[in-house]
Amino acid sequence: MSSAEMPSLVARSWRSLSATGETEIVPQARLSGPMPWVIAIMVAMTVIALAAGLALRNTAQAAAAELEGGVTVQVMEADPDARNAQAQNALTVLRELPQVASVRLVPREEVDQLIEPWLGEAGGGESASIPVPALLDARIDGKVTADAIEGIRAAVAEAAPAARVDAQSSWLKPVFDAIVSLQWLAAALVVLLSVALTAAVLLAARSALGTNRDTIEIVHLLGGTDAQIARVFQRSIGVDAAGGGLVGFALAAVVILFLGRRFAGLGAGMVDGGALGVTDWLLLALVPIVSVLLAMATARVTVLHALRKML
């Protein structure tokens, strides 16, 4: 550093410590450098990943609540007359069981609608070439356990030999297992993105320290403390993180709302159950706030650690 530059540098450093002029140590145009946009991308991806995890949780909870206590009885008999007779017998037996809260024989038209996407219109009806079982939808009190299923199976065995008893939740167990795996994946993405955000802030703080090393040394000579200098960097990165967080959350909200409308158009029951509620949106709104706090804490710790090694 030349002797001609020293007075002006001392003056700038002194002004940086006077009154509220601490932020002058790190002159920077907001939202013009790469740091705010890096934070915006990280926040947007974190919000989308968290929203996916919350939607999957809502889907699983809605499906589990709908299927809780549900038991399906299928009368798998090729002869239509025998099938209908056994279905009526099974219906009578189930109504007499104390653990069965409600039971109904699913109408033939409803069964035909269920199988139409796979077998077409010709697959249903009494004259169908493929025998379609008669279905009984029952609800029992309490949880559907293996003992409960076995008790119902034994009760209807004599009245309907061709009957098959299954818990409705067992049909979707592979789906539930897949949803749990996707939830863990979403959680892992949130953690990885948080780590990436911390690393980006750490690198930005170190770069700013290197750029302003001469100014920091003069500030120390004038009596500035490490805490004062760290507060300057912490405030500067906090402002960048706040701007980037707002931009990232806005982008993520647009994506989530767009995808939500797309999935809502499918008209599927499980998909509709995954809609985000008010509590979910409040959790998503915490992401940019937590990102700002994480960025400021990372910047402060990084700067203080570097200043101890520097001096």
TrEMBL record:
GO BP terms: cell division
InterPro entries attached to this UniProt entry: FtsX
Any one Gene Ontology cellular component term annotated for this protein: membrane
TM region(s), chain numbering: 37-56, 182-205, 241-261, 281-307
Swiss-Prot/TrEMBL keywords: Cell cycle, Cell division, Membrane, Transmembrane, Transmembrane helix
UniProt name for this protein: Cell division transport system permease protein
